[in-house]
Design goal:
The complex is a heterotrimer of chains A (469), B (318) and C (96). In chain A, 76% of the residues lie in helices and 0% in strands. By secondary structure, chain A is an all-alpha fold. The chains are: A mainly alpha (469), B alpha+beta (318), C mainly alpha (96).
Chain lengths: 469, 318, 96
């Protein structure tokens, strides 16, 4: 089907095709990514489980899990939401459905290739920029630039007067993440070395999260919550405070990842202060969304998409509380490099971000397929597996991290810390496996929605309809 | 009016991002440039070569085209004894030079002048190969380490240096670090002791000039295992390392490190085939209490990946 | 209209976000407190087994603080939601 549309005329491609292909790709990569995560966690809990081959060695799979989830699931879900939210907010069609389909095609091909190479150990050895630079050039020029052109042209051709806050986020973040990856890859392409390389690695890693994953996820919530509840956004002014504060404060604190490296002290202090200021956009975002729920809080209990969305927004509270303060010198000293940071990273990506995107993918796929969700029961099952699995993971890793931090401060022999962490490693595996199971259910549910979901009549929203089944 | 909004917005975003990049990228670049290479920094870049990880000379990241570190106890040219033995970095013909040889400004003020002056690194040629050492000199009244191109200053050729050292004094450091990167050791071990209590357990944190010319630095961020920047200073036993890499539970029952037995390749040092399945079966019997001793760990072949990895750990991580 | 946000209806879906929110904030405050207070004797690092939940130990204190914050947040959110539902039920909010 995809192949047929890739060479069709733009006008002959049904609207929403790019959204649908992006949506299913993202869910597929979510299943792959969380499956790998669960397998990796098992290897940490039971190191003698599968041995004797480099194919299933932890060091070969860890980065595949990370990038499958970030570039596969999260970023493709972003692509999916951009494909349907941007035109909807501009009261127009997507600028080019065909370009969108080419983007999703190149994205899947490039990512598969990159991940296979990574799995074989062909890597650049730089965290979050593990993909070798030729693949990164594919990501930039085959994926981000076409995606950006599509979004920017759709915004430019909009039929509304203003630009809604979601589109501000989409347009700006694609631009900023392209710059981030270009600069972040420069050590590999131009062979920059030493501390410059180390710093650019974490400059890239930080900005990938700060200028892409967090703000785009927030932008999605600015669309889904008003749409699902029918309430107007509480305040556009606060939304813009959020948007501009993200660009001002989130693009600067990269060096707080390297507090113990011999970087210039002024840079570390600057990063620490800017890191606390991240609380400004964070509070603006959470307050704006929660106040939008006014009068419609019962949807949090009754409506699946709202449940996902609001859970994600609520998880942004501990996320930003941790993020703002854990990088100050005092707390960083305690928690740096421990499982706490792993927990925090999963709170951002699996907690806050993934819940917001899952809501948008649920909503967007139903909207574009014009079919109501196949089974609410399976949807709820997904939600509960997802949230309980995440909580087990997050809580166990936070406690493991605090124990590890105490071990660091008390100079406990390292092997004793490993022994103390063992039960939490098992809990982490259980939690991760629950999330994976939930996602398999989700993929099935969405597949059946596309095939057998109740058709949604013209002019109605899927979530307004009662279930016929 | 409608059009103005996104034009103004785009300009604003660009301006703000540009300003933040001025501070966070351009600002620290001056500080980085003033770093004077220490002995550690020079040793690292000379033993690791141009870069580790994916590159033109090593597209499969298996450690090809890397320099070889040798410990020389006699002069390769004259045969005179050298005491104490000197560490030399052999670049065979065609091996890409480390960044500081071609881009001298990376060495930092002082080191750059001495290396290009009395060190004669400018006359080293990639097509015929070269042997480098790190020597001590004086610059503006301060002692600095600098790179010496011994091919030019003392007439040491790569072939002669390798022959003089012999296998027991040859260390495949560059290849070893490549294995460290490709096997993902750095997902659990860090190379960055923190400036806190880590001092006592893991040793001193690195200095500003310890990284000049190194790529990638692979500090690691997620510490599921001890910091290993100075591990060879704590434990320098090749036997322990060999057993620990084959199956960490042989020497540390509570370890969660994976077994790296696949790095041994197909045969051991004597050419006998290695049967990992049979070994694991015997090891399981040992765990079940049916054997008194665990099965023997095969001795790694000379060109095996694990030998290079252990070479790197024992030579560089002191 | 009747209160749609009684504790019975909201408890399940509230419990988990409220708990994680509270525990996240509690862990930050706990870690800050322990960094300010400093460490005690070696025996009280609080790593192994039940020690990790003994408030007398270093890491046990933070863990207990997390759990206390979690419970507090769950109670606060439960009360807030049911009050919110009461206010909503008193006025006609349909199609707000």
């Amino acid at each position: 089907m995809l192949m047929k549309y890739l060479f069709a005329k733009n006008d002959e491609i049904p609207a929403g095709s790019a959204t649908i292909f992006f949506g299913f790709s993202s869910i597929f990569w979510f299943v792959v990514g969380t499956g790998l995560g669960s397998f990796n966690a098992a290897k940490l809990a039971f190191p003698d489980w599968v041995t004797g081959t480099e194919l299933f060695a932890f060091g070969h799979m860890r980065q595949v899990h990370v990038l499958a989830v970030i570039v596969g699931w999260i970023s493709m879900a972003f692509g999916m939401t951009m494909m349907y939210m941007t035109p909807a907010l501009g009261n127009t069609r997507l600028w080019s459905e065909k370009l969108g389909l080419w983007t999703v095609f190149l994205w899947n091909v490039g990512l598969s290739l990159g991940l296979i190479l990574l799995w074989m150990g062909i890597t650049s050895g730089r965290e979050y920029s593990d993909l070798i630079w030729p693949i990164d050039l594919v990501v930039i020029f085959g994926v981000l630039v076409p995606l950006g052109i599509n979004v920017w042209m759709t915004i430019a051709h909009r039929k509304t007067q203003g630009i809604y806050i979601t589109n501000w986020f989409f347009g700006a973040c694609i631009f900023m993440v392209t710059i981030t990856i270009l600069v972040g890859q420069s050590p590999e392409i131009f062979n920059l070395t030493g501390l410059t390389e180390a710093y650019l690695t974490f400059w890239h890693a930080h900005n990938l999260l700060g200028l892409w994953i967090t703000p785009v996820a927030a932008g999605i919530a600015y669309y889904t919550i008003p749409k699902l509840t029918g309430n107007p956004l509480y305040s556009h002014r606060i939304g813009h405070l959020h948007f501009w504060a993200i660009i001002a404060f989130y693009s600067t604190p990269a060096s707080h990842h390297l507090m113990s490296a011999p970087l210039p002290e002024w840079l570390k202090s600057f990063a620490s202060v800017e890191g606390v200021l991240i609380l400004i956009p964070a509070v603006a975002f959470v307050a704006n969304i929660l106040l939008t729920m006014k009068g419609k809080w019962s949807l949090f209990v009754e409506n699946l998409e709202t449940k996902f969305s609001i859970t994600g927004v609520l998880l942004a509270i501990p996320l930003n509380m941790q993020g703002g303060f854990q990088q100050t010198r005092a707390i960083n000293w305690y928690v740096h490099g421990t499982g706490w940071i792993v927990a925090h990273a999963h709170l951002a990506l699996l907690g806050m971000s993934s819940f917001l995107e899952a809501a948008a993918v649920y909503f967007g796929l139903q909207q574009m397929l014009r079919r109501k969700l196949y089974s609410l029961t399976l949807g709820n099952l997904h939600y509960w597996f997802f949230i309980i699995g995440f909580c087990i993971y997050w809580i166990s890793m936070t406690i493991a991290g605090l124990i590890q931090g105490a071990g660091k401060i008390y100079e406990v022999p390292y092997i004793d810390v490993v022994v103390a962490e063992h039960p939490y490693m098992i809990a982490r595996w259980v939690g991760g496996t629950m999330v994976f199971t939930g996602n398999v259910v989700w993929l099935y549910n969405m597949w059946m929605t596309a095939r057998e979901g109740t058709l949604v009549p013209e002019g109605r929203y899927p979530h307004e309809l009662a279930y016929e089944r | 009016m409608a059009f103005r909004q996104h034009k103004l917005g785009a300009a604003g975003v660009g301006l703000m991002l540009g300003f933040s990049m001025m501070i966070t990228l351009f600002g620290p670049s001056n500080d980085f440039r003033s770093g004077v290479s220490t002995w550690v920094g020079l040793d690292k870049q000379l033993s690791l070569g141009r870069l580790i990880g994916f590159s033109y000379e090593d597209p499969t990241v298996s450690g090809e085209g890397k320099p070889i570190t040798v410990i020389l106890d006699k002069d390769p040219k004259t045969g005179a004894a050298i005491d104490p033995p000197v560490r030399a970095y052999v670049y065979k013909a065609g091996t890409k030079f480390s960044p500081g040889i071609n881009h001298n400004e990376l060495l930092g003020p002082g080191v750059e002048e001495l290396s290009t002056g009395i060190g004669k690194i400018g006359s080293a040629s990639m097509s015929s190969g070269a042997v480098f050492t790190v020597s001590k000199g004086e610059f503006n009244g301060e002692e600095v380490d600098y790179i010496e191109n011994t091919t030019a200053t003392r007439g040491w050729t790569p072939d002669a240096a390798l022959r003089t050292a012999g296998d027991e004094n040859t260390r495949y450091v560059g290849k070893g670090k490549t294995i460290y990167i490709t096997e993902g050791c750095w997902w659990c071990h860090t190379l960055l002791p923190e400036q806190t209590q880590d001092w006592q357990a893991f040793g001193a944190p690195p200095f500003l000039g310890d990284f000049n010319g190194e790529m990638p630095t692979a500090f690691g961020s997620d510490r599921k295992a001890p910091d290993i920047l100075h591990v060879a200073a704590r434990n320098s036993s090749r036997e322990w390392m060999t057993m620990h890499f084959f199956n960490p539970r042989l020497v540390q029952p509570n370890s969660i490190m994976p077994r790296f037995n696949y790095l041994w390749g197909r045969t051991d040092i004597n050419g006998n085939p290695i049967d990992i399945k049979a070994w694991s079966k015997e090891y399981d019997e040992y765990l079940a209490g049916n054997r008194i001793y665990p099965p023997e760990v095969p001795e790694p072949a000379r060109d095996s990946e694990v030998r290079a990895l252990i070479d790197w750990v024992l030579t560089s991580l002191k | 209209m009747k209160n749609k946000l009684t504790l019975n209806r909201t408890i399940l879906v509230l419990l988990i976000p409220a708990f994680t929110t509270g525990m996240g904030n509690g862990s930050v405050f706990g870690a800050a407190v322990m960094c300010a207070v400093g460490r005690g004797p070696y025996e009280s690092w609080g790593g192994w087994d039940g020690e990790a939940y003994d408030p007398g130990t270093f890491s046990g204190f933070v863990d207990i603080m997390m759990i206390a914050f979690g419970i507090a947040f769950a109670i606060i959110m439960g009360i807030t939601m049911s009050k919110h539902g009461e206010i909503e039920s008193q006025r006609d909010n349909v199609g707000w």
